[in-house]
Amino acid sequence: MVSDRVIVGVTFDERRGGYIATAPGLVTVTALSLGSLRKRIEAQLPPAEGIKLDLDRVARRERDRRRIALPGR
After folding, report:
1. CB of 16 within 8 A of CB of 29?
2. Which residue blocks in the chain are alpha helix, DSSP H?
3. What's the total number of domains in the chain?
4. Does residue 25 contact residue 69 with C-beta atoms inside 8 Å?
5. Is 4 within 8 Å of 49 (Cβ atoms)?
6. Are strands 18-22 and 50-55 parallel, antiparallel or unpaired?
7. Closest by Cα among 9, 5, 7, 8 to 57
8. The domain containing residue 64 runs over which residues?
């Protein structure tokens, strides 16, 4: 099975403005939220390709912290 997904490594750095994504062939992308990060990455890719965000420990911790801070979401 051939996958058309691009796996993008994601970390979180407060000093640089939020989430940071890197992948071969892509320009490094920063964004305040994971949703914005995904949209910015998709803008760099051909329409047929999908992406998989591979969050490291720091990014997962920040994502979870934000989910807890927004109850009812």
Report:
1. no
2. 34-42, 57-69
3. 1
4. no
5. yes
6. unpaired
7. 9
8. 5-69
The token pair that represents 30 in the structure block: 């920063």
* DSSP character at residue 17: T
Amino acid at 33: S
Give the tokens for residue 13: 């750095």
Question: In sequence order, what are the residues at sequence separation of 6 or more whose Cβ sits closer than 8 angstroms to the Cβ of residue 24?
Answer: none
pLDDT grade, residue 72 (50/70/90)?
Answer: low
C-alpha to C-alpha distance for 71 and 57, rounded to whole angstroms: 22
pLDDT at 1 over 50: no
Compute φ and ψ for 50, nearest 5 degrees. -105, 170
- Tell me the average pLDDT across 62-70: 89
**pLDDT 10s digits, 30-49:** 999 999 999 999 998 887 77
| pTM score over 0.70 | yes
